[in-house]
Amino acid sequence: MSRSTLKKILKWLGYNIFVFGCIIILAAIAVSFSKDYMKSQKLKSEISSLQNDISMNEKKILELSDFLKYLDSDSYAEKKARTDLGLKKTDEKVVIIPESNEDKTILAKADTSIATNESNAARWWKYFFKKK
C-alpha cells in the first residue's frame, strides 16, 4: 500500500470518528434536554393542580368566614334561643297547638295500610267504597 492511500484511509477514519463522536455528544445533550423537559412539564402540572387546590381552599375559607359571621350574628343567637331554649321576645305571644288523638289515629292507620302488601288500586277502592 502506498503512503498516500494510507493517509487517505487515516483521514477518512479520523473524519468518521469525529462525526461519530459529535453524534454521541448530540445524543447525550438530547437525552439530557428531554429529561429536563419532562421534569418541567411535570412541575407545570403540579403547579396547576396546586393552584386549583389553593383556589378551592380560598373558596372554602370564604364560606367558613361567612358562616362564622352568621354564627356571631344576633339572628343566629335569636334562632337558637327560640328553637333550643324555647324563649320569646317580650312583645310576642306564643300559641301552642296540642296534638289531638285524632291525628295520632290517622297516622297509625296510614302506617298500617302501608305495612300491608295491598296494591295501590285496592287501597283506593277501600278508601272510596268502604262503608263507614
What does this 3D model show about the protein?
The chain has 132 residues and is mainly alpha-helical. It has 2 domains: 3-96; 97-132. 80% of the residues lie in helices and 0% in strands. It has helices at 3-72, 74-83, 101-115, 120-129. It is elongated. The mean pLDDT is 86.
Defining key terms:
132 residues, elongated, single chain, 2 domains, mainly alpha
Summarize the structure.
The protein has 132 residues and is mainly α. The protein has four helices and no strands.
Task: Describe the protein's topology.
Blueprint: H1 3-72, H2 74-83, H3 101-115, H4 120-129
In percent, how much strand structure appears in the residues? under 5%
The number of helical segments is: 4
Share of residues in helices? over 70%
Q: Regions with pLDDT < 50 over 5+ consecutive residues?
A: none
Shape annotation: elongated
Element pattern in H and E = HHHH
